[in-house]
Specification:
- By secondary structure, this protein is an all-beta fold.
- It is 0% helix and 49% strand.
- The chain has no helices and eleven strands.
- Strands 2, 4, 5, 6, 9, 10 and 11 form a seven-stranded mixed sheet that branches.
- A hairpin with a 6-residue loop joins β4 and β5.
- The protein is globular and about 40 Å long.
- The N and C termini lie far apart (40 Å).
């Protein structure tokens, strides 16, 4: 099983930027998509963004235009660039891998998860 490790979280003022990284222990064979989810205390884990094997991507409406997702296959690493951050972006961010190739947006469609990295946006 592929191990996923997130990094890059921290505290930032509203309007600032942060880049999260998700490093895989090895090439994600059998995993057709990798995505980012986030979860705030007392709330359900929600979809943020996903990138497929072909490089296509989709985003949640709440982050569209502010976040970008990318990956470096040679480094087995995925990134989430977060710009124009808002206090409502505050959450634990999780990296995940899915066998689905049709832009999975739901938690149940993912098989492997990282430990999460905290992002806190102050006003």
């Amino acid at each position: 099983q592929v191990q996923l490790v997130e990094s890059g979280g921290g505290r930032v003022q509203a309007g600032g930027s942060l880049r999260l990284s998700c490093a895989a222990s090895r090439r994600t064979f059998g995993m057709n998509a990798m995505g980012w989810f986030r979860q705030a205390p007392g709330k359900e884990r929600e979809f943020v963004a996903v990138i497929t094997w072909s490089g296509g991507s989709t985003f949640a409406d709440s982050v569209k235009g502010r976040f970008t997702i990318s990956r470096d296959n040679a480094k087995n690493t995925m990134y989430l660039q977060m710009n124009s951050l808002k206090p409502e972006d505050t959450a634990a961010y999780y990296c995940a891998a899915s066998t689905s190739g049709h832009y999975p947006r739901h938690v149940y469609e993912y098989d492997n998860w990282g430990q999460g990295t905290q992002v806190t946006v102050s006003s």
